[in-house]
Amino acid sequence: MYHLLRPLLFGLDPETAHGLSIAALRSGLPVAPPPRVSERLRVRAAGLEFPNPLGMAAGYDKDAEVTDGLLRLGFGFVEVGSVTPLAQAGNPRPRLFRLPEDRAVINRMSFNNAGHKAMLERLSRRRNPSGIVGVNIGANRDSADRIADYALGIERLGPVASYFTINVSSPNTPGLRQLQDPDQLQRLLSVCLAARDRLARRVPLLVKIAPDLGEAELDAIAEAVLAAGLDGMIVSNTTVDRSGLTSGRHADEAGGLSGAPLFVRSTVMLARMRRRVGPRMTLIGVGGVESAETALEKIRAGADLVQIYTGLVYGGPSLPGRILAGLDAHAEREGLARISEIRDSRTDFWADRRLATDEIPVISR
């Protein structure tokens, strides 16, 4: 039914439509057919057992309101947040823009969320606490010590998080991406790992990076992550690059671009990072996943797991089930015991692909 409802939803302000989708999931109504479950799709990554490799990316369920509703759509895991110590409103509206011709979205939300306390309460009272729910942590915009904000998130939310993602790559909080610089990243990872090690149980720790990085920056991040012994990385966040857009509608809006135009850039960065970190580290591929084939290509490029968000805006709530069915059909057709067997089969193809900005990194400081 989504193809019938989409014109109505797209007639609404994007944030209003988003709120309606949250309300629909919260209601418990069957908004999509039950997804296919297959042993061929099980993945072990970052020390966790995932029922399938498809995850909901951070940014959709910022305050952990509908984690169970999302898991019922078929997602193998859900990442909530980004969450900051104190509640904050984010940037003024409008701050979310659809680009339908490009199947893309531009957002400049800037970590709008209800804070640690509200998230802890919601995740603590889940009726069915099964399922993998990661927590994406950030820093308050006006924080005097942003690194301390990340450590506080780990300390407070450790009891309810399946894993943590350190978000240092949002382009919408001024100065945040500077935490990807080598010296600051090393200090940040050290402080966060120390906070993690004080928890009662070991919770995997990942870092999410930008797609707008040059080769030297990728080298430095890979070196820092490997030296710290992090469990994994998410590649990538939204981009500040606007190349590849076919429509000028909203293209000049400030913020991070996500969706189909990000697929090539994020997949190239994923493959280049796989080359750098080797086969053992968990990598999650994000950016432009909107079908079984785009999910398969992320895995071929080096991803253990993949995440979607913008694809759901255009594909509707049945999209996770369709992607899972396509992944399983591919595994069956190719005689694979596990879909993960195709990982890295096209890493070199993607890593060697040149981008228009390879000579001039477009990272926004």
- Form type: globular
| CATH architectural designation | Alpha-Beta Barrel
Number of helices: 12
Largest sheet: 8 strands, parallel, barrel
Helix content: 25-40%
Low-confidence stretches: 361-365
Radius of gyration: 19 Å
CATH topology category name: TIM Barrel
CATH class: Alpha Beta
* Tally of discrete structural domains: 1
* Share in β-strands: 15-25%
* Annotation, overall tally of beta strands: 13
Q: Give the helix/strand class.
A: alpha/beta
Major beta sheet, strand line-up = 3-4-7-8-9-10-12-13
Order of helices and strands: HHEEEHEEEHEHEHEHEEHEHEHHH
Mean pLDDT: 94
C-alpha end-to-end distance: 42 Å
Tell me about this structure:
- By secondary structure, the chain is of the alpha/beta class.
- The protein has one domain: TIM Barrel.
- About 35% of the residues lie in helices and about 15% in strands.
- The protein has helices at about 1-10, 15-25, 65-70, 115-125, 145-155, 180-195, 215-230, 265-275, 290-300, 310-315, 320-335, 345-350; strands spanning about 45, 50, 55, 75-85, 95-100, 105, 130-135, 165, 205-210, 230-235, 255-260, 280-285, 305-310.
- Strand 12 (about 280-285), helix 9 (about 290-300) and strand 13 (about 305-310) form a beta-alpha-beta unit.
- It is globular and about 50 Å long.
- Mean pLDDT is about 95; it is low at about 360-365.
